[in-house]
Specification:
mainly alpha, two-stranded antiparallel sheet, 348 residues
Length: 348
Amino acid sequence: MGTYALVFGVAAAVAALLSPLAAWLGRRLGVADRPGGRRLHQGEVSRLGGVPVFLAFAAAIAVAAATGRLTAGYSPGDFSRLRGLLVGGLGAFLFGLLDDRFELSPRAQFVFQFFLSLVAVATLLWLERFTLPFVGLITLDAYPWGAWVYVPLTVFWVMGMMNTVNWLDGLDGLAAGVGAILCLVLAVHMHRVPQPSVALLPLALLGALVGFLPYNFAPARLFLGSAGAFFLGYALSGLGLIAGGRVATALLVMGLPIADAAWQIFDRLRHRRSPTHGDRGHLHFRLVDMGLSQRTIVLVYWAFCALFGILALTIASRLFKLVALFVLGGLVVAVLFCLSRRPPKGTA
């Protein structure tokens, strides 16, 4: 527990110390968002929030490694997966910085996300095993068609999580808060398994997000930006895979934003628009347009994600978890279907 506290504390302290600097630096360098289109904030806000989040996470991982607890009991495969998480996370962060500075095209973003998903595959961060109700544990590499199934699933999972977090990052504190909740749930789950060395990874990211959130919560003084959103999305996807597959847990916590992202893709396609064409069709934007405050919406999102995180930790039945996931997804889609009858206000 002392190592847990140390890793969390270092990450939170580094993020809290670097966030004001990132806020100032973003405005100084012109890497900042201005009001307009989908952006309803006041004044210039730096989008270099990914810098303190990533550096705080890296500092905490370095401290964990120095204690010797991070890699205790690791197999060669575990070391490979850890490298995949760290190298892929670094790549997502650096590419996000380029996007923050030059605002790259959606096609460039998707190409690089695909490349990062291949990094995950190459370092054994595979979605090769999962548990189904009535069936039990499914290990895809035990079947002749294994790689033909788990490689595309891994690519879909990594790219899907990165885009979900990126699209979720539309209101102050929304993506960072939801990410923090998932990290806490994963850390508790890994500690209980028990996998205490692996639990240090989500604790490091949790601390980084907690130190960053005071500057990101409405009214935000600092945005995650693409660097923060891409890194957070890749890190969360990797944490769901690194310890034997916690995909079901991640799906429950992220069920609301994932259902929203899936609906947006479907809704844009049925209206013959590109899925990458940004608008105010996301649930959180539509709720703002209905007159709810950003803080209220963000707190409701946090409450939903925390509730389903508690369900993931306390419900033993895989069937009940699956039912909860379908109920949540159906509820979100039903609400979005009703709201979609009113056209979104703005476009990116």
